[in-house]
Amino acid sequence: MGAAKRIRDVAAAGLSKIKHVRAFTVRGGGADYHDQGEGHWIDNHIATPMARYPEYRQSRQSFGINVLGTLIVEIEAEDGTIGFAVTTGGEPAAFIVEKHLARFLEGRDPREVEKIWDQMYFSTQYYGRKGLVVNAISGVDLALWDLLGKLRGEPVYQMLGGAVRDELQFYATGARPDVAKELGFIGGKLPLHHGPAEGLEGLHQNIAELADMRAKVGDDFWLMLDCWMSLDLDYATRLAHRAYQECGLKWIEEALSPDDYWAYAALKKNAPKGLLVTTGEHEATRWGFRMLMDMECCDIIQPDVGWCGGVTELIKIANYADSKGVMMIPHGSSVYSYHFVITRHNSPFAEFLMMHPGPTEVVPMFHPQLIGEPVPVNGRLHVSALDKPGFGVELNRELPMHRPYPH
Ligand SMILES: C[C@H](O)[C@H](O)[C@@H](O)[C@@H](O)C(=O)O
Ligand SMILES: [Mg+2]
């Protein structure tokens, strides 16, 4: 059969159209991974912009880091196939999905990812552009790619161009890089505990904690600091120099406000040669990341595929980074980033967020929401673990899901 006829036949056959888009919310860990119980490392006196207020210094939940909860987006095709995704967004994001975004999908061909993304973004541009609205768009886009993979019987990484390597390697984020080393990870990223409001004493404590961990892991294991937007330029510069010179820090992450491109450019310019400056997990769209890269704010961009616009937007962000020789290492987002990272040379490793309370064990990052969620073994994941349609996971429908805004 000639190629032209084959193309016509596939086009005529098409794929099952999109029938319905639904948005649910659920609480307790999962995609809103800061929504954890008492005593978890991820909520133990971690430096944040709110730490200037003593009453909000001990716990990020005290100022509402987990106020949103998880958004679940489900897209059902006419043949009954369902694609889904989870991200951070909860009820307000569910409203945006059902009351605004669904109209651009229902009745459409699921292959129209570009046109659907364009309509979702520009129809919400007057009140969106970043943050919650782009989280909602990301959730819909991820669910659409999951549906496409399930309709075609292909893993998302194969639809993105296929694997450029046989396995993923991971660094681990959490309070125990010493345990991460024993578990086979290539590095450990510590949360920073003290910000400018705790003065020179806090800075000394930050360095003491890092030096203690350096003594435990030895000289060659990567150690990084995640500052979660908590610092000012002067503090970040002083911390960068001391942490690099005294403790061999590999990178300083998200030290400043995501909007302060000018301070990031100054931090990168004044950072010690050899120390990497990284950021981006709270940035969104190709335009936001172009600003970070064109203003030379960082050495590595770290978009979260569930927050930056989804796979369709991450393709544009990653390709621009590649053209500029900037590494793109997505913020921890489980299978949603693994399927992307394995297809990109400028994404040589991935993040694994340790969600065990210690953390002393590897547990699925989005537990308990994804059935079949793969986890690194000895700090690695073979590509075969991704060889299932879509993102290769199913939704745990035993969870108490709520659909607040049915349309
Ligand atoms: C550990 C950090 O404080 C955040 O909780 C973390 O989610 C994020 O910044 C990361 O890079 O994993
Ligand atoms: Mg981070």
How would the blueprint of this fold be written?
Layout: H1 3-13, E1 18-26, E2 70-77, E3 82-88, H2 90-101, H3 113-124, H4 131-152, H5 156-159, E4 167-173, H6 177-182, E5 187-191, H7 199-217, E6 222-226, H8 233-247, E7 251-253, H9 261-270, E8 276-279, H10 285-294, E9 300-301, H11 311-323, E10 327-328, H12 335-341, E11 350-353, E12 370-371, E13 380-382, E14 394-395
Parallel strand pairs: 4-5, 4-11, 5-6, 6-7, 7-8, 8-9, 9-10
Antiparallel strand pairs: 1-2, 2-3, 4-13, 12-14
Catalytic activity: L-rhamnonate = 2-dehydro-3-deoxy-L-rhamnonate + H2O
Domain Mandelate racemase/muconate lactonizing enzyme C-terminal: 177-274
Organism: Sphingomonas gei
Description:
The chain has 407 residues and is an alpha/beta fold. It folds into two domains: 16-32 and 68-153, Enolase-like, domain 1, CATH 3.30.390; 159-388, TIM Barrel (Alpha-Beta Barrel), CATH 3.20.20. It is 35% helix and 15% strand. The chain has twelve helices and 14 strands. It has helices at 3-13, 90-101, 113-124, 131-152, 156-159, 177-182, 199-217, 233-247, 261-270, 285-294, 311-323, 335-341, and strands spanning 18-26, 70-77, 82-88, 167-173, 187-191, 222-226, 251-253, 276-279, 300-301, 327-328, 350-353, 370-371, 380-382, 394-395. Strands 4, 5, 6, 7, 8, 9, 10, 11 and 13 form a nine-stranded mixed β-sheet that branches. A three-stranded antiparallel β-sheet has the order 1-2-3, with helices on one face. A two-stranded antiparallel sheet has the order 12-14. Helix 10 (285-294) links the parallel strand 8 and strand 9. The N and C termini lie far apart (44 Å). Residues 42, 46, 173, 191, 226, 228, 281, 331-332, 353 line the site of the ligand C[C@H](O)[C@H](O)[C@@H](O)[C@@H](O)C(=O)O. The ligand C[C@H](O)[C@H](O)[C@@H](O)[C@@H](O)C(=O)O binds at residues 42, 46, 173, 191, 226, 228, 281, 331-332, 353.
